[in-house]
Amino acid sequence: MSRFALPRRSGFSFVRVAVAAAAVLQLSLAAPAVAQQVTMETLLDRVQIEDMLVKYYYDLASGKAHEMSEYFTEDAMLDVDGTIAKCRAEIEKLYGGGRARDPNAAPRPHNGMLLTNPVIEVKGNRAQAHVIWTGITNKGVGQPPALYEQGREDTELVKVDGKWLISKRYISSDSGTPDRFDQTFKQRDNPLAPL
Predict the structure, then answer these.
(1) What is the pTM of this model?
(2) How confident is the model over 55-70, as pLDDT tens digits?
């Protein structure tokens, strides 16, 4: 008998092992019933949503704050640490609401935003995206980068004319909260209801 052969015992058969293995495999495949159904369309939607979120922060870092409201539906709601803007006009005001920069001031450091750990769920023309964001500042080529803030985003999106737009967005700081949000800041978990 080969050392790889199965021992012959009474009641033991290859068919019983195969049936048991098939049953275990079937149970393991059926287990994640709560997981999202993945199709080519949901994968494409997920990629479009993730690209949109990245471009949002790219535009913000590029000084295009006045254009940020275009990522939102007309009746959208943006909640930044408890400071709430409703509708595109208020959102535009929130993003452009700072003092004008002195043209003689020293150049600003280059800031960027890392979006990590995305959890994106798509159901038809509705979706939710949850990400961790980390702000990085670069003061110069010869200096190391530094983290300046971090938090979470919980975003509800709708597809309008084939384009994903934000209908609700909750930005929650975990560190480095800008002073202008001190009055309204409150610690919170995911404020969105499940899809």
Answers:
(1) 0.73
(2) 998 888 877 776 888 9
